Amino acid sequence: MRDQVELYVKTCLVCQQDKVENKQPAGLLEPLPTSEHPWDSITLDFISSLPKSDGFGSIMVVIDRFSKYGTFIPCPKDCTAEEAARLFFKNVVKYWGIPNNIISDRDPRFTGRLWTELFKLLGSELHFSTSFHPQIDGQTERVNSLLECYLRHFVSANQRDWARLLDVAQFSYYLQWSEATGKSPFELVMGQQPITPHTFHHALGKGPSPAATRMVQSWGEHLDMARSQLAKAQKRMNGPMQRDANESTR
């Protein structure tokens, strides 16, 4: 059956255009120290060169290494280090405080004087991945792939509405069960699963305001689709990695 599935995927136009192949990196890596509590250590990366959407052209992806909680921040296409720092404070520090250490690639925005001096003054340690070894920051790279796969499937033909899809994508990602922790990121950070919009919609039925009913129903439908797509993308990524890991240990 596996051969038949692989043959079918090779002939599927959508699969060949939108989905990426994931393989276990060769060689042995030294794992990063385990975080002690949420937002103690984070990873940070950019998804760049996106079509302009509502004035944005890139996404800053911030992942808490302890809970896997993710924040997807739309940014200008040519986001400067100063703008990146401002968005980081607005969307991360405002809610969770200053992390003890930040892991990122060697993007000039992260290695420049403004970024390094700013977090030196704040007491955060900056750690940078080695060139040509993105797997050091593999957690963010993996979430980037999940987010890109989701956006490719739900973005419109002109690809100009991806910024409006980020809120549902982020909320859906919060609800995904993690193999590493056995819980969802939201549950680890908040202590419980959130009540989702479609829960109220199914319980209460149609209300006196058609517009309100449509809004709740739309949120519930988009949330269900997003969770389904993210779960499928996660399984596709885990499958090849797990097979390669099993074969390497034989």
TrEMBL record:
Q: What InterPro entries does this protein's entry cite? A: Integrase_cat-core (IPR001584), RNaseH-like_sf (IPR012337), RNaseH_sf (IPR036397)
Transmembrane residues, as ranges? Answer: none
> This protein's superkingdom?
Eukaryota
Q: Which GO terms describe its molecular function?
A: nucleic acid binding
Residue span(s) of domain Integrase catalytic: 34-193
Gene Ontology biological-process entries: DNA integration
The protein here is known as Integrase catalytic domain-containing protein
UniProt source species: Dorcoceras hygrometricum
